[in-house]
Hints:
Layout: H1 2-17, H2 22-28, H3 34-42, E1 65-71, E2 73-76, H4 78-88, E3 91-96, E4 99-107, E5 117-121, E6 125-129, H5 133-143, E7 147-150, H6 153-158, E8 161-167, E9 175-176, E10 182-184, H7 190-219, H8 221-229, H9 237-255, H10 271-283, H11 286-343
Parallel strand pairs: 8-10
Antiparallel strand pairs: 1-6, 1-8, 2-7, 3-4, 4-5, 5-6, 9-10
Helix pairs in contact: 1-3, 7-10, 7-11, 9-11
Amino acid sequence: MRVFTLLLRYKSFISFCVPLNPSRTTQNVRYFSVPAAKESFSSLQIKKRPVRKKPRLDEKQPGPYNVIAYATAAEYDLEKLAKGLKSQNLYTSSKVENNSDVLHALANYHVDTEPREIFFFREGSVVLWNVSDLESSNVINFLKPYEQDSYSEKLIQGESEMMNYQHQIEGKPSTLEQNGDFVIPFERNLLDKYTFSNSLALSVKLGIWEAMLDKYIDSIEYVTEDLKLGKKIKMTREEVLRKHGELFTLRHLINLSSDLLDTPDFYWDRDQYERLYVQTCSYFNINRRTKVMNEKLNHCIELVELLSTHLSDKHHIRLEWMIIVLIMVEVAFETIHYLERYLS
């Protein structure tokens, strides 16, 4: 606007300075018009790069929708949970391709055209598709009677994962966008949602274990400081043995009781979904996070074994000194008896 104002003032100045002869003024003087000034100013602007348009999704369906995953316990009793859902009559539950470790629930009452679906995994994770925050809280509270070794509310909320999903053009397979959005077909998408849910459930479960390991490391951090300063170890042999058990339990969960190190058997004869599962796990850095956790576990095990060896050595030294003292006491008594016999 300042440029346009200056141009208009410049035009007034030219009109004031030229002679009043109309014919001469018209012949020799070129006036600046406002449209011409705008055109001249716009030609000086830097041209912007053309914006890349995203692939066109299914415009008939609104979106995006939310999908959120929680890990609330070490394990769910899916058989009792299925009965509880049936008695509640709010969701219709079923298995996914005869997989006994997963329970799929579809809401009986629709809020909009997009269905609300939930996947319950036996290892203690739940993934909710197009479910509001209020309904998610109700589902988490509903799960408590069917949980084993429930986690704290702070840990559940802190390690949750929230993503978005949209619908794909009809006839195209599901994909994972670079920004992390799931793109799935509108119809016949149960296995697509299950595949995404499987990797999401694995990610939040790994997040819980990472938080547990960080808490464990904080609990033994003072020991390394005491060792560095040469102070007395303040842990007992029973406490060290308990710490050893916690480490091996966590190591067992990560490497033996989960699918962190290998692709589940479900995808062996389903190449399309296996590629989608591997791609999603790669997005969540499952392999790298698992490797880092195992390295941390190895360092913790070395530290605990060092403590165990140190405390065992101290215990052995204490026993040896007790034996030495007993021998000295026995020698003293024998000496006294000898002196009594000799003096008598």
